[in-house]
Write a structure and sequence with these properties.
mainly alpha; single chain
């Protein structure tokens, strides 16, 4: 069974609405400003980290290490040049 065909005007309107939706969704990405140097102190506070409890994070990393027999890879690495 095939889908019913839309009239040409309705098809154009649907394409235009889709295009406008995509443009509206992606235009918000252009408004992101880089972090200014004076704002980095606020971002470095412990309450701004992704991990809520350091002890729990250590326990989870230990469990992963014990099961996978591998360590590391959970933090931020260097750029591949060996200068980390």
């Amino acid at each position: 069974m095939t889908a019913p065909m839309l009239p040409p005007i309705a098809a154009r309107a649907a394409r235009a609405a889709l295009l406008l939706g995509v443009l509206a969704a992606t235009s918000g990405c252009a408004l992101v400003q880089p972090v200014q140097p004076w704002e980095k102190g606020v971002l470095a506070k412990p309450e701004m980290s992704f991990e809520s409890d350091r002890l729990d994070t250590n326990f989870t990393e230990h469990t992963y290490f014990s099961k996978e027999a591998a360590s590391g890879g959970a933090g931020v690495g260097g750029g591949g040049c060996g200068c980390n």
